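queue> pop job 88
queue> type: inverse folding (structure -> sequence)
queue> payload:
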């Protein structure tokens, strides 16, 4: 009988996280991706969803379930409802993101509860977000991009800024620190100064 284990399960079972391929975008690549998202048919919305997925480490299912009631624009805060038994938290919204949210909301003329909606006045689907990200990646010339790379990119960004493991763990909603260690282990910042 043939071996039916897929590559992903083999990858997840490795004892050394360094055996994983690069699964994130660095800051310049993220900037290109966000610019690529702006060039789409629904550029204002698409840019915002990618920005929020990156800034808050959102999974696709978390992003499409963000409700307007989760936003507190007066205090520049968002309630992040984590799935997969993650820790839900309130996070700040910075000025760039706040302006992007307001710009997008000004294009809406409905009273739907979801933040991200389709032309058919429905919440975006996982498939539509996958398509938005893939298309933005092609336009940006950053290669093949999948939604979970944005969550990983958030973790790597925080690790490279020197934030400690516990803060990154809480920010991404991980209950177990073993899910967070990967970011801090291969963050380039910790190797800076070795030869200087």
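queue> result:
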């Amino acid at each position: 009988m043939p071996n039916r284990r897929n590559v992903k399960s083999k990858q997840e079972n490795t004892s050394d996280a360094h055996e994983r391929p690069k699964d994130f975008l660095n800051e310049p690549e993220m900037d290109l991706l966000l610019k690529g998202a702006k060039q789409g048919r629904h550029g204002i919305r698409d840019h915002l969803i990618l920005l929020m997925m990156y800034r808050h480490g959102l999974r696709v299912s978390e992003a499409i379930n963000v409700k307007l009631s989760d936003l507190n624009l007066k205090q520049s805060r968002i309630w992040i409802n984590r799935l997969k038994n993650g820790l839900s938290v309130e996070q700040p919204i910075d000025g760039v993101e706040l302006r992007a949210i307001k710009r997008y909301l000004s294009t809406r003329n409905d009273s739907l509860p979801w933040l991200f909606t389709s032309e058919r006045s429905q919440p975006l689907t996982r498939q539509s977000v996958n398509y938005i990200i893939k298309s933005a990646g092609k336009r940006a010339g950053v290669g093949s991009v999948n939604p979970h790379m944005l969550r990983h990119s958030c973790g790597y960004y925080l690790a490279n800024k020197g934030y400690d493991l516990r803060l990154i763990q809480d920010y991404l909603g991980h209950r177990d620190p073993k899910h967070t260690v990967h970011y801090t282990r291969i963050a380039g910042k910790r190797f800076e100064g070795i030869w200087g």
